[in-house]
Write a structure and sequence with these properties.
The complex is a heterodimer. By secondary structure, chain A is an alpha/beta fold. Chain A has helices at residues 2-28, 54-63, 68-73, 86-95, 109-117, 124-130, 139-149, 168-173, 182-194, 208-222, 226-231, 240-254, 267-275, 289-292, 340-361, 377-388, 402-417, 422-432; strands at 44-49, 76-81, 102-104, 154-155, 160-167, 198-201, 279-285, 305-308, 323-326, 331-333, 392-393. Classes of the chains: A alpha/beta, B mainly alpha.
Chain lengths: 434, 294
Amino acid sequence: MATLRTKNRMLLLGASLGTASLVLTGCGAGSSGGGEGGSEAGEFSFLTNVENTTISTELETLASDQCKTAADAMPLKVDTVPQTNLDQQLQLLAGQGALPVQFAAGNAPALTKELAGSGNVLDLEATLTDLDVIDQIEPAAIDTIKALYGGFNVLPYQYNVEGVWYNKQLFAENNIEVPQSWDDFVAASESLKQSGVTPLSASGEQGWPLTRLISGYLFSDLGKDALQKVADGEAKLTDPEYVEAAAQVASLGEKGYFGEGVGSIDYDTAINQFLTGEAGMLYMGSWVLANFNDEAANQIGLDNIGFMPFPKVEGGSGVDNQYAANVGLPMAISQKAYNEGTGEWLKCISENYGSSALGNQGSISGFKVNEEVDVDPLTQTVQETISSTSESVLWFEALFDTQATTASQTNAAPLVTGSMSPEQFMETVQSALK
Amino acid sequence: MQSVLGDKKALAILLGPALLVYTLVMLVPIIWSMGYTFFSGNAISGFTFVGTDNLTRLFTDPEVRTALSFTIRYAVVITVGQILMGYLLSLMYVFILKKSSNVIRTLVFFPVVLPTVAVALLFQKMFEIAPQNGLVNSLLNGVGVESVDWFGSASSAFWVIVLMDIWRSMGFYAVLLYAGLVDIPEDMLESARLDGATGWRLIKNIVLPLSLPVLLSSIIFSINGTLKVFDSIVALTNGGPGSSTTPLTLYMFRTSFTFGDYGYGSSIALLLTLLCLIVTIFIFRSSRRDLTKD
């Protein structure tokens, strides 16, 4: 009896220790990756996603020119993280109280709201007013930020419209008119495919360039409040009219319009396919102008690129000339790391970034352009589009939380490769929405 | 020695520091982690007590079902592959290559020392279809077969992971099992041969039973390691396409650190723990069975 009890006790002890140690092991797997990006005293540390080189390049330029005084007092230090790992990196750093001075806002605006709610994000409206540079930010950019982030919590290093970029030469060679409707768009894709060109270049690895097509279709078909209704619980992504949008995008994949291996194509490859003439169209935001202005990468030539709004779904209740607008790759400032040196940097950035980024990289920001800048016709077109767009829409995941954003972006490639049905895709994203 | 071990003070001095460190770095975080299962939230937004909600959610979450199914399939296939390949290699070292097996052993062991991420990148490039065909698709094209999007479907991505992980680890198990095989007394093998046991009969009746202890240790190593797989999958497929190659560990990591739900993440860790525990107990139990009876 005593032996049995000892045996049971040993088994229980063994089981408890085993359980306990494995729980720790389980958790231990996730503990890597922390510690990066933490700010050291006296540095203007900046954590950004590795795909975005525009902002860090421009800040480095400013650090050696207009912002030299601020940079001498507080040197710029750039750290990068892949965009797909950005959200978890921010959460880890915030949990450890180690956020850098400036950091890329997460993929989901909900994360920035959460960080702001816990006192990790600087209120820029108050700070920039104190620094007397609030008038250096375009009011439209502030409005967009407030609508998305619940306050002026991020800097508009880019202020973008999104739409479809197309290769004029390929269109002309195949007698394709600029598509006005969704049906025209599908027909143009078919013509391009027949001519041996990938119709649409898109990164399935990132996922969002594909889900942008779903939201574009939804806004055009159901109106600009289509996804607000989902966020408010008035509609579900599994409703037939919503599933239809996913089905339309899935059918583009089924017809082979994204080319081979879309799930493995990363952001740079997608851009390169368009810029080398391998693809006829690219859905992207105007931040891509920086890539277009890179003469080494752009083999089709700047004059050969056209820009059009999202094609209208016939009979849909959306607006004509629909563009999605956003503050692409917005950056937040850590409230805890804010000091006088950061203030100097903010003042200098607000006063100079707009002209500098536009002049050097053709990148349009939400900062005012204070100097006369010569820009190419394409950038000029985009600038005019931004100023003439009275009604813009958001993107698919703009109102989703982190989990639904991840579910949407990781399942976009399976949707267009056919390994997931439109119903399954919408069901997966809907069930991830809290 | 008897007097030292009988002295409670001496025991406390000898064991105290180790126990203290163990308690601080192991037991406290374990209990802490288990405590999280009763809360939702994270370090940024704070925690809310939710009782057993996280544990009941485990039974209804389709993502958990997918991750659990993948984890078990992966663990079974990889364990069988690792042990089988390792055992065959070790038999080859001992019975075919004999004393000249050094070079082959080193070559087969080489992938074990390579960083996982480097191996994953190598396999990504080998199996890629875009922006250009990798080695495998080029070979397929060479024999008139169309390119395959290996990472585009759940089943093909699974088999690429399997191939990579078996290639990466079979050298380790081969060496481990080789150490067990060389311990088998040569005179026992010799007498078996004199009795007419050769080839498969020799392996089945003599080599296999005598190498069973090291084989069992290898299986426990392998199954526990594979149930907790993380790095190789993150580097090769990042759990995709969709979530079809997402193991429990990766789902737990994302839940905790991307979705910001430490409580549910800890619940998934608990599930993984129970899984490891059940498998380990099952293997131990079956190993205690007396093979000479029944």
